Amino acid sequence: MTYASPLAAPSAAVIRPRRRSSVSRLLADTAVIARRNISKTLREPDSLLDVAVMPVVLILLFGYVIGPAISLAVGSGGGYTSTGAFHSYLIPGMLGFTMVNAAGGSAVAIAADMGEGIVDRFRSLPMSRAGVLLGRSIADLTTSLLAIAVVLVTGLIIGWRPHLSAGDTVAALALTLLFAYALDWFMLCLGLLIRSVEGADQTRLMLMFLLGLVSTALVPVNHMVGWLQGFAYWNPVSVLATACRHLFGNPNPAATSTAWTMQHPVVASLFWSVAIIVVFALAAVQLYRTRASH
Q: How many domains does one find in the chain?
């Protein structure tokens, strides 16, 4: 009689590693990267100064220094005739302006990871390419949440109030968060294209002021030249600001414009956000694969 050796090799079914599905792998890698980026931010809280302090500075600057001068200059044609009315106009616009600033951190962070070789380490692991970027975008969304909270709390302190239903207020905040997530993907593309942290930071500032100032976010645009008004009315920051004013029940002088985006700001904001996510999420994954292969 023969006996099987206890040291005999186990069957192939025992030693064969269990393969994860592509979906479970993507979700697991996304969660790992998101935790990693959130933990890094918590260890370096000074990196949040631009979203925790700058909104407060800008709200006070526009609300008490620049705003009264604008109110005096445009009078009732601007949609507000007092400082308090301008504050109600300002806060919804500041949400859009601040989302551009908050999302800009994504460009700087991914450029830093590429420059420091973090991506090379990820490439040496069996990780999903999309999971790395998806985890980054989700982690950066928490920064946008902080920025939204700072703007709202500061607005409430200076007297801003939403005047419509709670559902409308929630819808405005959901639009803002969706827009922030869309901008994250756009900024990730910029960070992958620009090879230095300094370049990514300078590009972020340029876009913040271009999209934020040439818009209805902080000032009325009815006194701009015609071609600049056209850009401002289709600017996604303007669309979000107008949608939030509409849903908050705040002064909304852009509603008198005949531009389609100003007449249907909620639908236009949804369209802009979804289009940006679809286009730039695909572009970011392709750029990441190209950069990681070199």
A: 1
